[in-house]
Amino acid sequence: MEGKLIWWSPSPSWLMLSTLCLLLCAAQLQTSSATVAAAGTVPIPAGNVVPSAGVKLTSGKDEAMIDNGIIQLTLTNPGGFVRALKYQGVENVLETHEPDDFGGYFDVSWDHPGGEGKTEQVVGTKFTVITETEDQVELSFSSSWAASPKDLVPLNVDKRFIVQKGVSGFYWYVIVERLKGWPDVNMDQHRMVFRPKITMFKYMAVSDEIQKMMPAYKDRETGEKLAYPEAVLLTTAIEPEFKDQVDDKYQYSMEIKDHKLKGWISDDPKIGFWVISPSEEYIAGGPNKPELTCHCGPICLAMFTSVHYSGLDMVTEYRNGEPWKKVFGPVMVYLNSIVPSNDHAALWQDAKAQMEKEVQNWPYNFVASADYLPAAKRGSVSGQLLVDDKVLSPTPKEACTAYVGLALPGTTEVAFQFDVKGYQFWTQTDPKGNEVKLGPVTYKAPRNGPTLWEIGIPDRSAAEFFVPDPDPKFVNKFFVDKPNDKYRQYGLWLRYPELYPKSDLVFDIGVSNYSKDWFFAHVLRYV
Ligand SMILES: *[C@@H]1O[C@H](CO)[C@@H](O)[C@H](O)[C@H]1NC(C)=O
User: Fold this and answer.
1) Which keywords label this protein (predicted)?
2) pLDDT bucket at 14, cuts 50 / 70 / 90
3) pLDDT digit string (tens) for 350-365?
4) 514 Cα to the center of ligand 1, angstroms
5) In the 3-class helix/strand/coil scheme, how is 91-146 assigned residue by residue?
6) Separation of 513 CA from ligand 1 center, angstroms?
7) 94 CA distance to ligand 1 centroid (A)?
């Protein structure tokens, strides 16, 4: 990967953050590319065997339909909800229970300060055809806060959909804006939600390793709620393999750096439904923030901002009439099928190849809104990152595989972790130490002398610490033989007071071993 950076904020000192990164990341990346190479079958996406037709738009009284001969996307007009997605002769690969649950929607969780919080599916009020050619159709479904009832989120929202000739899927981005002087507001989540059809999509894939058949949503309804509503013990299950297992959407979270591809597979007919996020620039929290991916429903998400795993620090707060504008996406919804019929791995590998193509194409040059900057309107920063730590080496050393990012300058070096308003541009330094353009940037490690002691590895991961076995009553069998994923099991926090019933753990430097004697999470004591 080339060390090319998109220049956003003139804050080169921010490059220092990169040194927080770890060789561990390199090991992980190598693992995942090895997996790609090992996979065998090369699938033929149906999009490549159907001759490409031009893109056709039909708009009616309450819907707009875009057809490129591969997919047909139907949107409510002017609401801008995904009503249907036709593919491979299936009229709708999405679930639809109108008016409450469309197959695809954008929502905002928000309230005025002091309010209890509510989630609003943003409804468009104005339909505009932005582009209509043989090659591409772009549609806008917008709403203006000033012209809306005052109990709606104080944002102007523009939902944009793009269908291109020869592309097996569609692109979707959303522009949100609040103008100067608008009322105080807290927003704790912005996301797109997709609901693949329940009767078809039963196999979920969120990474090379985490792919599995999933329980039915009904199993959750008949199960026993655990400590929070998302975690359910499946006391009855349509498929016996899920009986007495825990289902919890948080078990399938991935760090944003690993969030680019996720989706669901239908076995009959064999179809993959994928959500591709080609960039992290519009997702809040930086590369190591975990976010939800897909979960029992079936549901597939494109998360943009959220308080997941951080809490109130990541509420998007606006006070004193502060203005804001941000473009979320474009995200791609990609559909594939295999000719002849093949296995899950082939669909996943094909979707992964598509994801890599989208990443290569970023920033896109086909997005009509002036708020989305194409490559020609962006600058770049490149350089070589060195770490000067005299204790480890007399001369500065290359910071191999460090994550380097640009974000809004904050008051601390880790402000990017909590920034929800700006964009973030991340890259990883080349593990081979290739030539770089701008010259060296040296991070001087803060040192008063040699390290006397440390517990664990300062790499933003708790993987090296002690992760207890789950309570046998609350297991998700899928993770049992996966040591790296053990931390995902439900209720591990309750093991801490069992291990240390009277007082907190004591770690003796030089005697204790962090793999056994340091609990992987700082948990609350249940009283
Ligand atoms: C610490 O414990 C782990 C796990 O039991 C073990 O593999 C490792 O060798 C131990 N380290 C030391 C320094 O004893």
Assistant:
1) Signal
2) very low
3) 999 999 999 999 999 9
4) 8
5) CCCECCECCCECCEEEEEEEECCCCCCEEEECCCCEEEEEEECCCEEEEEEEECHH
6) 6
7) 50
Q: Rounded distance, CA 500 to CA 151, Å?
A: 49
Q: Is the dihedral of CA 372, 376, 378, 384 positive or negative?
A: positive
* CB 159 within 8 Å of CB 324: no
Q: Which amino acid is at 350?
A: D
Mean pLDDT along residues 265-271: 94
**pLDDT of amino acid 438:** 63
pLDDT bucket at 490, cuts 50 / 70 / 90: very high
Digit-coded pLDDT (tens) for 172-207:
999 999 999 999 999 999 999 999 999 999 999 999
pLDDT score recorded for residue 401: 81
Cβ atoms within 10 Å of 22's Cβ, excluding its own: 19
DSSP classification of residue 466: B
Q: How far apart are CA 229 and CA 220, in angstroms?
A: 10
Amino acid at 334: Y
Structure token digits, residue 168: 């097996």
Banded model confidence at residue 296, pLDDT cuts 50, 70, 90:
very high
pLDDT (tens digit per residue) in 503-516: 999 999 999 999 99
Dihedral over alpha carbons 222, 225, 231, 237 (to 10 degrees): -20
Instruction: Give me 209's structure tokens.
Output: 């390793």
The predicted model scores a pTM of 0.87
Torsion of Cα atoms, 237 then 241 then 245 then 251, to 10°? -110
Provide the token pair at 193: 């939600």
Decide whether any atom of ligand 1 lies within 6 Å of the 513 Cβ: yes
User: What letter does residue 378 receive in the DSSP assignment?
Assistant: -
Enumerate the CATH 2.70.98.10 domain ranges in the chain, comma separated.
Answer: 56-360
pLDDT in tens, 333-390: 999 998 766 689 999 999 999 999 999 999 999 999 999 999 888 877 878 889 999 8
Any atom of ligand 1 within 6 Å of the Cβ of 516: yes
Q: Which two tokens stand for residue 207?
A: 């990474």
Task: Quote the strand ranges of 14-87, DSSP E.
Answer: 56-59, 63-67, 71-76, 82-87
Pick 417 or 214 by higher pLDDT: 214
515 lines ligand 1 (CB under 6 A): yes
Atom of ligand 1 nearest to the CA of 513: 1
Ligand 1 centroid distance, CA of 15 (Å): 35
Alpha-carbon gap, residue 308 to 290, rounded angstroms: 8
Choose the residue to mutate in 465, 467, 516 for probing ligand 1, maximizing ligand atoms within 8 Å of C-beta.
516
Atom of ligand 1 nearest to the CA of 514: 1
* Ligand 1 proximity of 510 Cβ (cutoff 6 Å): no
Give the span between the Cα atoms of 218 and 223, in whole angstroms: 9
Per-residue pLDDT, 2: 30
Q: Quote the tokens at residue 228.
A: 């929070």
> Domain 56-360 carries which CATH code?
2.70.98.10
